[in-house]
Amino acid sequence: MASKRYALVGKDCVSCGCCLKVCPIGAINIWKGVVAVVDSQRCVGCGRCAKECPAGVIELMERRAEV
Ligand code: SF4
Ligand code: SF4
Predict the structure, then answer these.
(1) According to the model, what pLDDT value does residue 63 have?
(2) 0.90 exceeded by the pTM?
(3) Which stretch of DSSP H or E encloses residue 58?
(4) Can you tell me whether residue 52 is helix, strand or coil?
(5) Does 48 sit in the ligand 1 pocket, CB within 6 Å?
(6) 63 lines ligand 1 (CB under 6 A)
(7) Ligand sitting nearest the alpha carbon of 63
(8) Cα–Cα distance between 66 and 11 in angstroms, integer?
(9) What is the per-residue pLDDT across 40-55, written as a single tens digit (0 to 9) for each?
């Protein structure tokens, strides 16, 4: 079953890469060296990336129930 939450990276990401290192499933990549992008389908919503982000730009979003 899919997790209830997923991480979303805000536009002020400074591409430091800290979030990549703590994601247990490797669901985050740095897109073109500019911004971190979470694979929301794979993200399990653990929140580690959000705690680690020095810029505080990662939010955990509630998944909408799929109809
Ligand atoms: S919430 Fe957890 S699984 Fe999802 S991207 Fe962040 S560290 Fe990875
Ligand atoms: S830890 Fe935060 S600032 Fe650093 S790459 Fe990840 S989202 Fe961007």
Answers:
(1) 93
(2) yes
(3) strand 58-62
(4) helix
(5) yes
(6) no
(7) 1
(8) 26
(9) 999 999 999 999 999 9
Domains belonging to the chain, first-starting first, are 5-62 (3.30.70.20)
How far, in Å, from the CA of 46 to the mean position of ligand 2? 16
Query: How close is the Cα of 28 to the center of ligand 2, in Å?
Result: 10
Residue 62 pairs in a beta bridge with 5
> Hey, what are 32's tokens?
């073109």
| DSSP class of 14 | -
* Range list of H helices, the chain: 18-22, 48-52
pLDDT band at 65 (very low <50, low <70, confident <90, very high): confident
Q: Shortest CA distance to 13 belongs to which of 63, 62, 50, 60?
A: 50
